[in-house]
Design goal:
Helix content: 40-55%
Largest sheet: 2 strands, antiparallel
Structural class: mainly alpha
Keywords: Cell outer membrane, Membrane, Signal
Number of strands: 8
Strand order of the largest sheet: 1-5
Protein name: Membrane protein
CATH topology of one domain: Serine Threonine Protein Phosphatase 5, Tetratricopeptide repeat
Order of helices and strands: HHHHEHHHEEHHHHEHHEHEHHHHEEH
Number of helices: 19
Family: Belongs to the SusD family.
InterPro entries: SusD-like_N, SusD_RagB_dom, TPR-like_helical_dom_sf
Distance between the termini: 45 Å
GO cellular component, one term: cell outer membrane
Shape: globular
Radius of gyration: 22 Å
């Protein structure tokens, strides 16, 4: 996978066109090739379009990708996974020595004040992906085209899926709730250089579904060489999330079918007990569906997800900004559940040297760690990868969708498949039905996917509350926050309101 995400000449062209130093609504710089020229060149040499798509994947792990001003909470897509985990309150900021995430995220200042940079970071990042995907789509003759060459079909399919993925995240972060008639986001479906007004949720979702369904068809024969790229099964997984987030009971069978297809077609498997304690650091883990191989070519260090979360990297999590599991959620994990050990510090020969673990427990000592497992370890991340999607989340989403569709037996079966690998006796699952079953699926989603950027989605999708009931939060202890509370949603950034004449206020 190293070759796929190296930043080469074409990726530098991508950054020149869409880098965060310039407004993403600016017209294309005249010194670069125009769309027609690129389209003509790509027909002769598909490697040109491949370079643009690979540039998007590289951008997703780019340091300072969102704001470009050197902030250590700005490191691509996983930056926002971390934002969402802290907003969900299942991840607690227990100690704040350096101040990252405290005011803007855990004290909800950014989600209530559009001048805070977190709003711009998330907005700019995903719209940059959209703009670059639109360029690739244009190079391939448009979203409705079916390129003659198979390689170009695969390029177009990936671009469409990436555009939908970006819109899914934007709606997640900038819409209080799923309301089809609400005007939420500017909808750019072409490589244009002008600002647009907000489109409705239904229009955004229609484009996402259209893109993903086309992508699934175009990626039918795509065989990726690693896991960094979106293939057919990953596109189906994204589509399952999109449909599930509509909360339309009549469509939950679609979600159940899609997630079943992902699990059966992907060749992946549920992570076993050894793997769930193995560090979540290897993209080759059979339970991972989509992820990035972090290697020396990417030059990733402190400014990274690992640099914020992992006690066994050169990190803030080692030096004094501790991200821990909410103690109330931890208490809900049975003592015989293997996942409880993910948050316990025990017995490794190096683990008694220079650690604050006994003073500040409940860090993910055995869930997320660099494979070298040296406290405050190497300054460059080379043996700890990024996970974007895995088999277990499809299994849980399948259980959730089946339960909502009234397929109690199928929901029980999926949940049992997970829990039989986590606790000695999972037979209790077969006694659950109705709301009790939904409650258990939601709880197991929170436990299984803790720290993976999925709980915030589950809260909004299921109209649940964010609960700060643990005693290890620095602020708002005891707060219960509804899924559609303004504090749970980012604001359209100040710069967008200033620069885009079609948007001059926040949503009503």
């Amino acid at each position: 996978m190293k070759k796929q995400i190296k930043i080469g000449i074409l990726t530098m062209l991508f950054i020149g066109l869409y880098g965060c130093e310039s407004d993403f609504l600016d017209e294309q710089p005249s010194q670069f090739l125009n769309i027609q020229q690129l389209e003509e060149a790509a027909e002769v040499n598909p490697a040109i379009a491949v370079g643009f798509v690979d540039g998007i994947y590289a951008y997703m792990v780019e340091t300072f990708a969102g704001r470009g001003n050197g902030r250590h909470d700005d490191f691509g897509h996983k930056s926002h996974d971390l934002y969402s985990d802290l907003l969900s309150s299942d991840m607690a900021l227990s100690v704040s020595t350096f101040g990252w995430y405290r005011a803007g995220i855990t004290e909800y200042q950014s989600t209530q004040d559009f001048t805070f940079g977190e709003n711009l970071q998330v907005w700019s990042f995903y719209y940059t992906i959209i703009r670059s995907a639109n360029t690739v789509i244009a190079i391939q003759g448009g979203a409705d085209n079916v390129p003659e060459l198979e390689i170009n079909q695969h390029i177009l399919g990936q671009a469409l899926a990436l555009r939908a993925f970006a819109y899914y995240n934007l709606h997640l972060y900038y819409a209080n709730d799923y309301n089809p008639n609400d005007e939420v986001l500017p909808l750019y479906d072409a490589a244009i250089g002008i600002g647009l007004p907000r489109s409705t949720t239904s229009e955004v979702y229609a484009l996402m579904e259209e893109d993903l369904n086309k992508a699934i068809d175009l990626l039918e024969t795509f065989q990726r060489s690693g896991k960094a790229q979106i293939n057919k099964t990953v596109a189906k997984g994204i589509l399952a999330y999109v449909i599930a987030s509509t909360r339309e009971t009549s469509r939950m069978q679609e979600v159940a079918n899609l997630t079943s297809e992902v699990m059966s077609e992907s060749g992946a498997s549920l992570m076993n007990q050894g793997e769930v304690l193995g560090g979540f650091n290897d993209v080759n883990t059979p339970g991972w569906l989509w992820g990035i191989d972090i290697n020396e070519d990417l030059n990733i260090g402190l400014v990274s997800w690992w640099g914020q979360v992992d006690h066994f990297s050169y990190s803030y999590a080692w030096a004094g900004d501790f991200k821990t599991i909410d103690s109330n959620l931890f208490d809900q994990i049975p003592n015989d559940d293997i996942r409880k050990l993910q948050f316990k510090f025990s017995g490794h020969p190096q683990e008694n040297q220079g650690t604050n673990a006994s003073i500040f427990p409940l860090q993910p000592f055995y869930k997320f760690y660099d494979s070298g497992r040296v406290i405050g370890g190497a300054s460059q991340v080379v043996s700890a990868d990024y996970v974007y999607m895995r088999y277990a989340e499809m299994l849980l989403l399948n259980a959730e969708a089946n339960a909502k569709a009234g397929n109690t037996g199928a929901a029980q079966q999926s949940l049992f498949s997970l829990m039989s690998q986590r606790v000695p006796d999972a037979s209790y699952v077969n006694t659950l039905s109705g709301q009790d079953l939904l409650d258990e699926i939601f709880l197991q989603t929170r436990i299984e996917l803790w720290g993976e950027g999925k709980t915030y989605q589950a809260i909004k999708r299921n109209q649940r509350n964010a609960e700060r009931l643990g005693t290890n939060h620095l602020s708002f202890q005891g707060e219960i926050i509804p899924h559609n509370d303004n504090r749970m949603t980012f604001q359209i950034p100040e710069r967008e309101i200033q620069d885009n004449p079609e948007i001059n206020t926040q949503n009503p």
